[in-house]
Design brief:
The protein is of the alpha/beta class. The chain contains 13 helices and nine strands. Strand 7 and strand 8 form a beta hairpin. Helix 10 crosses helix 11. It is elongated, with a radius of gyration of 20 Å. The two termini are 32 Å apart.
């Protein structure tokens, strides 16, 4: 199974890239999710275990650290190297390390990631400057004969959808600015939708989705997901769009925006789930690049529409 990997170092826009990939419909994770999964074998040079099963995209460390090994483990994958001018990057990374040092020694996962990436657990300007240059040169050299698998993306210079979407072979979002978010941003803020988007981290963490840390008060109420939008409202909206687009298709994000225009992203996995139920009932068909697919298995952007007469029979 091919993946999308964001292999820029921390503080190069890796969280914004994670948010963008999730917005495009890819099941995405970033640093803190990998901390939750564990990926302990990576630090020992073992990549047999498929820690990314069920996940389309992963960004930040330690993905960037092990881009060569992940390229071998998931052949044919796409790699996005987020970059930034070195001087402001050094200021930002020093601030990040300084803040963590005030909280005490780094936790084991953070320590292992820092040692594997930078060869140090505390900030050192000369070392970090060298590591950044070596990382960029190493990535470019590794993909020198496979330019179709590497995109160098500078979000700080205004690059974004126009570069990312053609590289991934997906449509650009209409009228939606490229995400500009800070570390800690969660593309799936509600536990129910978060773990339905990528179930493997929940399984590894040993917590039931409804009891995940940060669960909101109404997450367990029947018929009402943690987003606060009732299940029946999602199904009704899907049926309404099907009636209006009798000969065309629409994106799940259109449903989410219709129901929650100011906070629609958490609804995306919920819309997919109900689309799958309507598809099982023969009311709807999911398409990817024009071909019928099962929304539970599809990776990446999908479109929804009416089933053809042959599919109904």
């Amino acid at each position: 199974m091919t993946k999308i990997f964001g292999i820029g170092l921390s503080k190069t826009g890796t969280t914004s890239l994670y948010a963008a990939l999730a917005q495009l419909g890819f099941r995405s994770i970033t640093y803190r999710h990998m901390r939750q999964i564990g990926v302990a074998d990576w630090f020992e040079g073992r990549f047999v275990t498929d820690y990314l099963d069920g996940i389309d995209a992963a960004t930040d460390l330690p993905v960037a650290t092990y881009f060569r090994e992940l390229d071998a483990r998931y052949p044919g994958s796409k790699f996005v190297l987020t970059v930034r001018e070195v001087e402001p990057w050094l200021v930002s990374i020093q601030r990040q390390f300084g803040a963590s040092e005030k909280r005490g020694p780094p936790r084991p996962f953070a320590r292992d990631v820092r040692l594997a990436t930078y060869g140090a657990s505390i900030f050192n300007e000369a070392r970090f400057r060298r590591v950044a240059a070596e990382h960029m040169a190493g990535v470019r050299a590794h993909f020198a004969d496979r330019p179709d698998q590497l995109l160098v993306l500078n979000l700080f210079n205004g690059e974004g959808w126009a570069e990312l979407c053609p590289f991934l072979g997906v449509e650009m979002p209409d009228g939606t600015p490229f995400p500009n978010v800070k570390p800690g941003y969660e593309a799936y803020p509600d536990p129910e939708t978060r773990f339905s988007a990528y179930p493997y981290p929940a399984k590894r963490a040993g917590r039931a989705p409804g009891r995940a840390r940060g669960a909101v008060a109404d997450a367990g109420k029947p018929g009402r997901p943690a987003t606060g939008i009732a299940d029946v409202a999602v199904r009704d909206a899907l049926r309404q769009f099907l009636a209006q687009r009798s000969t065309g298709t629409f994106c799940p994000s259109e449903i989410a925006r219709h129901l929650a225009p100011d906070d629609w992203r958490p609804l995306m996995p919920v819309v997919r789930r109900h689309a799958a139920k309507l598809q099982d009932a023969g009311e709807l068909q999911t398409y990817q690049k024009g071909a019928p697919v099962d929304p539970r298995d599809a990776r990446g952007p999908i479109r929804l529409g009416r089933p053809s007469p042959a599919q109904r029979s």
